[in-house]
Amino acid sequence: MGKNNAIIITSIIAGVVLIIALLALNTFNSVVPSSKNSVTVQGSSTIKAMPDLVSVYITIKTNGTTSAEATSENTKIYDKLVEEMVIAGFNENDLKTESFSVYEHTYWDYKEKKSKTEGYVANHYIRVELASDNMNKVSKVVDAAVKAKTEISYINFELSSESQKRYKAQALKEASEDAKIKAESIASGFNKKVGKLLSVQTSDFGYSPWNIYASRNVDGVYMEEMAKEATQAATTIQPGEEEIYASVSATFQIK
Predict the structure, then answer these.
(1) Where are the domains of the chain?
(2) How far is 167 from 81, CA to CA, in rounded Å?
(3) How far apart, in whole angstroms, are the C-alpha atoms of residue 233 and residue 213?
(4) CA of residue 38 relative to chain centroid, distance
(5) Model pLDDT for residues 203-240, shown as the tens digit of each residue
(6) What is the chain written as a DSSP string?
(7) Is 77:149 a contact under the CB 8 Å cutoff?
């Protein structure tokens, strides 16, 4: 008799556990919709953007037998650049350091067929940022750089941080709207409606500065000649609208 009672009690407990498991599974299914009842679409947007900055990138490169010597020579040229910029009507705060590095100069000895080191190199990369409506000042920056015996690496039309944020928000919004329209069109074709948004991913905002001049680094081309090319490029090429883009991948519930 006791054995039968134990079997009955065990059966009751097993039944209760099974009921709880089924209820939990039903609750889970009601919260997480089946992937079979969803659609994934790609939304994209391309908008026109007008650059509001022109940036002149300057490089100071010096050599020395020691890192201290290379750095010291680099500092002297930088100080000369600051002096020439002030004479041209700018101030030192207009010179923004992008990066500064000192490293051993390594080269390949073809005769001995091995890598060798010889002295040190100091590189100082500087950016001068101007509003796009101050294009007439680019030539002054170039002249100051030439007088200080530095190199104009390149000149770009760019978007300011504020403009990038504004265009990014607009592009992503339009890409999201495009994705929703596509999902609704697909659902309508199957006599269905779009439900809630299940997931979304973005490839973010596509933007690159618009280069109008880049140093050629050609032997025999004097610094003054390259400066002339840089000035001509900056004064003859006017900023125009450029295309930037954004895209998103969105998954919607279909009901």
Answers:
(1) 37-48+164-205+248-254, 53-159+209-238
(2) 35
(3) 6
(4) 32
(5) 767 778 888 888 765 544 456 676 667 767 666 667 77
(6) -HHHHHHHHHHHHHHHHHHHHHHHHHHHHHHS--GGGEEEEEEEEEEEE---EEEEEEEEEEEESSHHHHHHHHHHHHHHHHHHHHHTT--GGGEEEEEEEEEEEEEEETTTTEEEEEEEEEEEEEEEEEEGGGGGGHHHHHHHHHHTT-EEEEEEEE--HHHHHHHHHHHHHHHHHHHHHHHHHHHHHTT--EEEEEEEEEEEEE---EEEEE----TT--HHHHHHHHHHHHHHPPP--EEEEEEEEEEEEE-
(7) yes
Residue type, 53: L
Mean pLDDT for 147-155 is: 90
Q: Which two structure tokens, joined as six digits, stand for 160? A: 């300011």
pTM over cut 0.90: no
d(CA 9, CA 17): 12
Q: What residues are paired with 102 via a beta bridge?
A: 122
Mean pLDDT in residue range 21-42: 57
Q: Under CATH, which number does the domain 53-159+209-238 receive? A: 3.30.70.2970
Dist CA 249 CA 255 (whole Å): 20
Q: Are strands 210-214 and 114-131 parallel, antiparallel or unpaired?
A: unpaired
Q: Of 251, 89, 74, give the one whose Cα is nearest residue 180.
A: 251
Greater model confidence, 240 or 168: 168
Average pLDDT over residues 147-170: 91
* Inter-residue contact 195 to 253 (CB < 8 Å): yes
Q: Which amino acid is at 14?
A: A
Show the tokens assigned to 89: 């009507």
Strands 95-109 and 151-158, how do they pair? unpaired
